[in-house]
Amino acid sequence: MPELPEVETLRRSLEPCLKGQVIAGARILNPAVLLPGPELYQELLPGRSVEELRRRGKYLIMCLSGGWRLTAHLRMTGRLLWYDAATSPGPHTHVILDFQLGGQLHFQDFRRFGRWWLTDAAGLDSLSGLAALGPEPIDPNFSGRVLRARLGLDGKGWGGRARIKNALLDQKVIAGLGNIYADEALFAAGIHPLRTVGDLTDDEIERLAAACRQVLNDGIAHRGTTFRDYVDGQGQKGEHKNFLRVFQREGEPCFQCGSPIRRINVAGRSFFHCPACQKNDQVTS
Ligand SMILES: [Zn+2]
């Protein structure tokens, strides 16, 4: 699933193509991916220009003239692809936006979990997932203090016995992390993924906040991580897979200490980590 670095890379790759372009129309091949419904897209999109492309967490937000917002979430396998000229839709293309100068934006999604929302600015604020998002971990104001508050160590939220990786994946705690970058951040901070939130020291939370920012910025610098599906707006894969230190490296030597990287499965979720660099006194595994 695309995480913050992949969506940010997509935003940066698409914005130069889309900014200032005027939509000619929407061709809707699968109306089920469009919320609140296809009619609004047909009615409202023609003639509107793209003013800006923003990102919030894993959401990509196209700001259109007249205050309208076209928001996309790629979920598992969604792709947004730009073509300078008319291009035939692929087998999993659900929507094509045609632009007046001849360019096209194709929304493809093999698994069909991706969604678009068309709203005004106020409607965007009330989109449930977006409104509840935690802070951006690459924001300069993000810190251990912020993370500590979001984890609810004051007795609310995730505090207490929740496992730290599960808390990091909750988009309400911080926005944009998924399995890849959560495992990488915990390794960079030297924290075992099964540690409980309430057990972490202030120093560890400070290290973790810095590690989240670092691994996400590294992911952006390498234009995202591609295992199979993710590509940017020009169809280019990301290179960050070559820089991962624990995720999907089970059995391979840790780059810091040489111990084999271990994968634990708990409740259907995988936790990649180095058992030597990320000690856990609380569990035996
Ligand atoms: Zn190690």
Description:
This protein has 285 residues and is of the alpha+beta class. It folds into 2 domains: 4-131, N-terminal domain of MutM-like DNA repair proteins; 144-273, Helicase, Ruva Protein, domain 3, CATH 1.10.8. The chain is built from 8 helices and 11 strands. Strands 2-9-5-4-3 form a 5-stranded mixed β-sheet. Strands 1-7-8-6 form a 4-stranded antiparallel β-sheet, with helices on one face. β10 (262-266) and β11 form a beta hairpin. α1 runs parallel beside α8 and α7 crosses α8 (202-221). The protein binds zinc ion. Zinc ion (ZN) binds next to loops. Zinc ion binds at residues 254, 256-257, 259, 274, 276-277.
Structural class: alpha+beta
Largest sheet: 5 strands, mixed
The kinds of small molecule bound in this structure are: zinc ion
Low-pLDDT regions: none
Instruction: Name the CATH architecture of the largest domain.
Output: Orthogonal Bundle
- Beta strand %: 15-25%
Outline: elongated
